[in-house]
Design goal:
Number of helices: 3
Radius of gyration: 16 Å
Oligomer: single chain
Distance between the termini: 27 Å
Number of strands: 0
Length: 80
């Protein structure tokens, strides 16, 4: 929470990038990682279904890392 406050104070002039950063590491997991994990733990019984859940979780993690890095890079690049 303190990190978000610090980033928002520093990045108040670039609100769009701040919102993109929060979306990258907060919303992407809500859409791709957590539902697949809950399905994997609670409902998936067949091996191929569990494999699809793992693929979705890994893809979500990759998307989260990629979008976070792109947003941070754009933020740093605009300051230089």
């Amino acid at each position: 929470m303190a990190a978000c406050v610090g980033v928002s104070i520093v990045g108040a002039s670039d609100l769009d990038k701040f919102v993109a950063l929060i979306g990258s590491f907060a919303c992407v997991p809500l859409v791709y990682i957590y539902p697949a994990y809950m399905h994997y733990k609670g409902a998936a019984e067949k091996g191929w279904v569990k494999a699809l859940d793992v693929v979705l979780m890994v893809g979500g993690f990759i998307a989260m890392v990629y979008t976070t890095f792109v947003t941070v890079y754009q933020w740093i690049d605009s300051k230089v």
